[in-house]
Design goal:
alpha/beta; Calcium-transporting ATPase, cytoplasmic domain N; seven-stranded mixed β-sheet; 17% strand; binds magnesium ion
């Protein structure tokens, strides 16, 4: 809309100067005496009243007020076009980890086989995990400490990257890791199979603990969904925005999160360039697509999206690629931004309409077109006052945006 206003303003200048010149000539040639004095005064009045302040202020004022209002509610706009485009999106692609979910694994539950207690399984696993850098390990150690369990330092520690860790604790040989690690070591996970399947269906990751070559229990760690995510997804869908999940994670976990949120279309094990490709194909099909993400892997899709939305809790790369940042990573911010987009565009329309109407009425008046009918001319002083009033009214109308309800 700013571009449109700029194009119009570029012609506006020439047109106004032409009208002023015609006014001078018209009055000078055909006007009553002293005709050239009338001509000069009216030409000046035309220039003053047409000073396109209201036109120039119409969109930037709305954008400035909207940007400030959005920032106050945790939504940062880097780009005015995003404010205008957000109301038009019909598809939102969302990343899972860190966008729909907290992105930080938290302890979920522990199961023990007969002969072990849950506390004992947790204590041994946490003792072994103290040496690990892995976020899943961190969640387990944190839980054991919170439960007041006394951790011991492992005598030996070995990390088999990706599948688990092993070591010696209190003279016992421990192994902690996924099914692949257990299979490799010949430890049967049969007795906890049903438990594990159920926990996986809830969207958790499972780690088995083996003590001296026999299964002792399992620990489930989950990446909890952010408290506001469900409401945000529901309200977006009710608004007619289709929500699609695209995640690098496995399909089982992805589907389980999608099921809890009522998201129907899920793309799992997606590489960064595939997210961008998905975005491009939807855009080619004529959709207006927004993307919400937090990671480096989301950056290409964020940059390509009609509106890219980054989580303020995520990576800098994502924020730099996106036009919108949700400061606290709260997806309800997208809804606030959309309401604001609708209110802002309406406000810009009002401002532009007013600026045009004002000029359409003011210029003929200043040129003395109505003089034969009314016998009055517009003094340049009144023209100057009218011009100020028109600018002020655009500013006040833009300020009304601050009162707009966007929640
Ligand atoms: Mg992510």
């Amino acid at each position: 809309m700013q571009r449109l206003a700029d194009v119009i303003a570029s012609y506006f200048v020439i047109v106004v100067i032409a009208i002023a010149a015609l006014t001078l000539l018209g009055w000078g040639v055909w006007g009553p005496e002293p005709s050239w004095v009338f001509g000069l005064i009216n030409a000046v009045a035309v220039m003053i009243i047409a000073c396109p302040c209201a036109l120039g202020l119409a969109t930037p004022m709305s954008v400035m007020v909207a940007t400030g209002k959005a920032a106050g509610s945790g939504v940062l706009f880097r780009d005015a076009a995003a404010i205008e485009n957000l109301r038009k999106i019909d598809i939102l692609i969302v990343d899972k980890t860190g966008t729909l979910t907290e992105g930080r694994p938290a302890f979920h539950s522990v199961e023990a086989v007969p002969g072990f207690t849950q506390d004992e399984v947790l204590r041994l696993a946490a003792s072994l995990d103290q040496g690990s850098e892995h976020p899943l390990a961190h969640a387990i150690v944190e839980q054991a400490r919170a439960a007041g369990l006394k951790l011991v330092t492992p005598e030996t520690f070995e990390s088999a990257s990706g599948i688990g860790v092993s070591g010696q604790v209190e003279g016992r040989r421990l192994m902690l890791g996924n099914t692949a690690l257990m299979q490799e070591a010949g430890v049967s996970t049969e007795s906890l199979q049903v438990h594990a399947e159920k926990l996986r269906g809830d969207g958790t990751s499972i780690m088995y603990l083996a003590v001296d070559g026999a299964l002792a229990g399992l620990l489930a760690v989950a990446d909890p969904i952010k408290p506001t995510t469900k409401l945000a997804v529901e309200r977006l869908q009710a608004d007619g925005v289709k929500v699609i999940m695209a995640t690098g994670d496995g399909l089982t976990t992805a589907r389980s999160v999608a099921r809890q949120l009522g998201i129907e279309e899920v793309h799992g094990e997606v590489k960064p360039q595939d997210k961008e490709r998905l975005m491009a194909s939807l855009q080619q099909a004529g959709h207006r697509v927004a993307m919400a993400g937090d990671g480096i892997n989301d950056a290409p899709a964020l940059a390509r999206a009609d509106v890219g939305i980054a989580m303020g809790t995520g990576t800098d790369v994502a924020m730099n690629s996106a036009q919108v940042t949700l400061v606290k990573g709260d997806l309800l911010g997208i809804l606030r931004a959309r309401s604001l987009s609708v209110a802002t565009v309406r406000n810009m329309h009002q401002n532009l309409t007013f600026a045009f109407l004002y000029n359409a009425m003011g210029i003929p008046l200043a040129a003395g077109l109505f003089f034969p009918l009314t016998g009055h001319l517009l003094s340049p002083l009144i023209a100057a006052l009218a011009m100020s009033v028109s600018s002020a009214s655009v500013v006040f109308n833009a300020l009304r945006l601050r009162q707009a309800s966007i929640d």
